Structure prediction request, 212 residues.
Amino acid sequence: MADNAAPIGLAVRIVEAAYDQMGISIKKLPMARSRNILPTSIAEVDGIIAGPKLFETEFPALRRIDVPIMQIDIRIFSCSLEFLASESMTQKRWGQLNGARVLSRHTAGYENVWLGDSFQELFDMLKLDRLDAVVGPQIALERYSKRADRGCIEAVGGSLEQVDFFHYLHSKNGHLVPSVTRVLRDMLETGQIEDVTDTFFRAEFQERPSSG
Prediction:
């Protein structure tokens, strides 16, 4: 699993819940997002917790469990509410999470893109005026806001896109695909995924204790 992606904690909870129902224990191996797909594609690990749908086109050894486990809303964040009115968007100082292929589509061809290791780093740089804008999921700013003062940062403009994320297994574990699919689909249809999501957000988005 990628250890620097905002929604990965939620994906972990959902996938763990599915395997718990199957009586299968899984071991999580946090990796940098820029390289986590490679060990899965060459069968060094058994699967990947979450990835966008485009993965299987580039890594045919991966088998997608065809049940979306979460959806992220990709936005532009800036300290200038007039940011989108600029005529030189490609020349602005952009921030993007290193290795996040879905996000990189929105900064392709831009001249000045800083690849950060975490959204905390990117948002900190945005507040310090070292970046003009950051591309990322809405959940990233919500989590950041519960751990630090978001200051001037706001989402500007509408949603760039909404991306479904999935659980993948290496083809060597293809015998598990029907069972995992069945359990995740049942969790989706009965509201269990929604329940896991609500529990995760309640824990993650607790108000920070006041300093006073």
About this structure: The beta strands are 47-52, 62-64, 70-78, 93-97, 112-116, 133-137, 154-170. Confidence is low (pLDDT under 50) at residues 207-212.
